[in-house]
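Form 7-S
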Amino acid sequence: MAKQEIQKDIDEDMSAEEALLEIHDEEFETVRLTLRQKLTVGATILISFIIFSAVVFLPLDLVVRAVLAKYSRMMRIDFMSLDLNLFEPDKISGLKIFLPDGSSIQAEEIQSQLGYREMMIGHPHGTLNVQNFDVSMSSFACVFRSISTAVDLQDVMESLDRWKGELQVRTGPIDITSLPVEGLPIPINAADVKISSLIINAKFNEGRITLNGTSIKSNVFDITVSGTGRLSAGLTATRLETVVCLTPKPDLENINNVLFGLYLAGGGTAGGRLCLNVTGTPGSPQFKKASE
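Output:
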């Protein structure tokens, strides 16, 4: 009798285990896709492959050239090579821009780490490095041997007074090859000035620009710029509230005695410096000696 009861318990336990296994198998039953679902998955994979191949293998320089050709009436843009990358800096070699008035801008090489998404929404962020940047206009021409730019701006698709963020520009030597024959407020020729570096520190916020830390180093003066400006929709209408300080080089009198004389006449001293309050607009500035 005891053996029969034990056997009955064993049979009941086995039945319970078999029932649990059947439930488990039902929960993890193999999912079978319909023909329509299979076609949808296949089409998605195919489209993804085509888009990826287009980004990686399509000759984008030909596409860009075709787009730029539409704007040939406003300006002519050409380049030697274009290398756009998803994970490495973009590179443009032999860039040339020609304007209808005869002005031109050329760059030997440009490397950009500006994010595509950020630029599309008007918030450029990243770095831009340029080698041998040549600017040529009717009465002025110069060559920047190198330019390093750090950009962190917002709302650049809006008017200038809506910009926010920071822009930093640092250059190597600048070769001035041509200056206007007339109209300059000081007697100086292109060969007289050798700029070793230019630094621009610009901060934009609530319709104002701050220029503290901006400087120019040359063979005649070291120049620093500080202060602010009230921005408007265009740069030409910006109101300046800045201080510009000029420190002459020790041998300025030998390099350009006329320029040194003007510096003394303006209130500067040998071995010292001359600071000027600069107000007005960039196109029509007003100068007044600042008290230090």
